[in-house]
User: What shape does this take?
Amino acid sequence: MRSSRYALALTRRVGLAAMCLIAPCPVCAASLSSRDVQIIAKVLGFLDPAPAGGPIAVLFASGSARSKADADAIVGLFGGGLPSGLGTVTARAVDAGSAGSFPGYVAIILAAGAEKTGIVPSKAHGLLSITGTDALVQTGDCVMALHSQPRVDITVNRAAARAAGIGFTAAFGMLVHEI
Assistant: This one.
């Protein structure tokens, strides 16, 4: 009886230690939530004209393991794709060092650390650039900032959207803060 009690205690301790080792760490957590990416998919349906689905570039900083992990985590949140407007959107991690002009993509999401690459995603003509950092929208480096906690808050830089050649439906204007 006594040895089984010790064995049970040892098993619990080992199990707890193993759980701590395999639990997701903050470095591996995405800077956007699953609710954020679902909202992003829906926002693409408010573009005028709305894309017929396609891939979203998740831009990460070259040489930054943290940025790459964040991009991979965001891509994982899209799974096999999310319904969006006229089609389905997927996501692909894209190295900022080899980004170019983003041909074939319907939008750009900045992963953590990608803002330090010197690439200004709002300059990508015809592509909605999305971030979780309000300061990038205020400076015009990104078109849209999105937060879903504690409530949905979307900020759009009107001048950056116009410069990127992006238009939104009138209904979308009632859902966002424009600066």
